[in-house]
């Protein structure tokens, strides 16, 4: 997985979404609710819930919001959200994989279809691009939070069972087999590292540069998808600007 660094792009999107923080918290609340509803309200015994809580904290979601979503799941609420994925191509032939959590499949399908067609993309059939991505555990250590050098971090990552370490000026990015994600995360925390991010993600096997004349359309498509209340994650095979 050489050359594809996510952290720079993640930070950039977080900064761009500061004005949409309320919507981000709403989406995270859904994830927390569903995780607690299906696996119980105690994060120590519910790895999925703990992962979503970590994700919420990395997005600066207030503790009260997190607890509210968990308590809602403990109550008699009959809310239910279905997990749905959509696949397609952005302008320039860039593969796009979308994860949604919805209580109205027709509404979500319409929102996603409109986002693609209005921004020069095309919605594909199930399986049309999924094979181009791998499910991976993804962990980030901000380099400003540790004195460890790359050799030490690599040793600790390998000892923890991680698959790959990528180093940049700002961060150590670790990729794991999704089944080993929880064990690797816990081992790194036990080793004293403060994790800036820890989540399951979709990593493209290969990346494609966005043509200069398609870049604005591409960004509008991703923004339109992320603006949907039901869309949780948008993954693309676009090459990073620095690649």
Automatic annotation (TrEMBL):
Belongs to the TACO1 family. Keywords: Cytoplasm, DNA-binding, Nucleotidyltransferase, Transcription, Transcription regulation, Transferase. It holds the Pfam family Transcrip_reg. This is Probable transcriptional regulatory protein FC39_GL000807. Its main location: cytoplasm. Residues 81-236 form the TACO1/YebC-like second and third domain. SUPFAM superfamilies: YebC-like.
